[in-house]
Amino acid sequence: MVIQHDNPLLSHDEVGILLSAAATAPSMHNTQPWRFEVTGSVVDVLLDEDRTLPAEDPSGRMTRIGLGAAAFNLRVSAAMLGYDTTLAIDPDPDRPDIAVRIFLGARHPSRNSPLGALYSQLRRRRTYRGPLATTDVPSTVLDQITSAARCEGGELRWLDAAARYKLGQTLQAADVLELHDEDRLTERGRWVGGDRAHEGVPSAALGPLPTKPAAVRDLSAGYADPARDSAAFETDPLIAVLTTAVDDQVGWTRAGMALQHSLLIATSYDVVVSFLNQAIEYSALRPQVQDLVGHGAWPQLVLRAGYPAESAAETPRRSWHDTLDVWQ
């Protein structure tokens, strides 16, 4: 890490606030695949190649989604500090590792903005892998969650009962493939299970094992873990597919921004979300999910949503100092 701070625009505390907020973003297996460079009033979100998942995410789609989510959190924390922001995706052809460049504009310390108001939800948001309560989420809340994704260029498509049934069949096929995919399971062992201080998904955050087949992803892929309990899960949860109009790096980054905006709005209403992305991680199965949402849309994530029936454990994060490459 190179740090230069002769008369910096941003104070040490402000840089810490921005990067700590970015780090609360979700990423596949909590790899936290981001690095940052701060140059004057510009913050670059960079890909960390050492934190990618070549076996489970060969295209880099899920990694890009994580970078987009981190970039959205930067905008939220900047808004909380009173800064206007604009952004550019893939801003420098000579620096393909820069996924998003965020420009901080004028500062209005006394201004309250809807974006800045989401700052209080950053550390409340957690991926919830436990059973859901039977209480229905009001349609007005679902509408706000959907609108949040749309603001960032994504679309949340809530599945009806028939589509959820078809998705269940796809999920079962994906789970079978996963159990026999040695490369994926070996790679996952680096990031999932056990006690983890700074990265990955510890056993405590895996959630209970379902007593019957359920629409929930078991990241342990069937391996016994004595730290996990078992529980009865809901039979038919709310499920949405997050889609984008294009399926390229820009679309994936936009999907991450749309995801995080919708997750923070959901959290503000105490709605929790987990992911069923195994249905689209296999190229042979992704078209089956696309059939459920229409061929003009590209499925990027599958979300299971509702009110929690129990508490969710926290996943660890690295210190922001460990993610800062340059400050000048």
From TrEMBL:
Domain of life: Bacteria
Gene Ontology MF: a single term: oxidoreductase activity
Record-linked Gene3D superfamilies: NADH Oxidase
Family annotation (NCBIfam families): Rv3131_FMN_oxido
Stored PANTHER family: NAD(P)H NITROREDUCTASE RV3131-RELATED (PTHR23026:SF123), NADPH NITROREDUCTASE (PTHR23026)
Protein name per UniProt: Nitroreductase family protein
